[in-house]
Amino acid sequence: MRFWSHGEADTEALGRRLGELAYPGMVVCLSGPLGAGKTAFVRGLASGLGIDEARVHSPSFVTAIEHEGRLRLAHLDLYRHEGTLPPADWLAEMLDGPGVAAVEWSERLGPDAPEDALRVSIDYGASGDERLVTAEAGGERSRRALDAWAPGEDRREAGPVGETGAAAEDRCVR
């Protein structure tokens, strides 16, 4: 599935819609260049889980931050882990938990990436604020989530490809 986002608010709206549909154990693997909107997407995801999106920021320097909402959100950022990943047992705990895991720079997981995950890629479009958001499912549960997420009426918020020219306490995990 592919969408055009015409700004940060559109990217957050796509994440919010997914957060509203999130299920226990959901993993969202995010990729895209620096500054493309991965954290904006996670802010929206958090909002859809009932988490104050103002509390969501990139956990680049602590690797992960957990937020409490309808489901716990584990927000991981692997930007600083290009050569060496965090310990495997810690990663498994974050990715296999009962909440939702959103992993920025997920391509760095390599073979450790969960098979049943929703993979969301955000790339720059032709204009400064335009982004191409591409999503694919890696398993049955994520396929059902992707099918339900297909925003339908909400699609106008971030338009499909071709429409344009191109709360509670947070816990840092170190």
CATH topology: Rossmann fold
Task: State the helicity in percent bands.
Answer: 25-40%
As residue ranges, the low-confidence spans are 153-174
Number of DSSP strands? Answer: 8
C-alpha end-to-end distance: 34 Å
| CATH homology group | P-loop containing nucleotide triphosphate hydrolases
Q: Can you list the strand order of the major beta sheet?
A: 1-7-6-2-5-4-3-8
Q: How would a crystallographer describe the biggest sheet?
A: 8 strands, mixed
If you had to describe this structure to a student in words, what would you say it looks like?
The protein has 174 residues and is of the alpha/beta class. The chain has one domain (2-173): 3-Layer(aba) Sandwich (Rossmann fold). It has helices spanning 8-21, 38-48, 88-95, 140-149, 155-158; strands spanning 2-5, 27-31, 64-67, 73-77, 100-104, 118-124, 131-137, 170-173. The chain has an eight-stranded mixed β-sheet.
Topology:
Elements: E1 2-5, H1 8-21, E2 27-31, H2 38-48, E3 64-67, E4 73-77, H3 88-95, E5 100-104, E6 118-124, E7 131-137, H4 140-149, H5 155-158, E8 170-173
Parallel strand pairs: 2-5, 2-6, 4-5
Antiparallel strand pairs: 1-7, 3-4, 3-8, 6-7
Jot down its keywords:
single chain; 174 residues; alpha/beta; eight-stranded mixed β-sheet
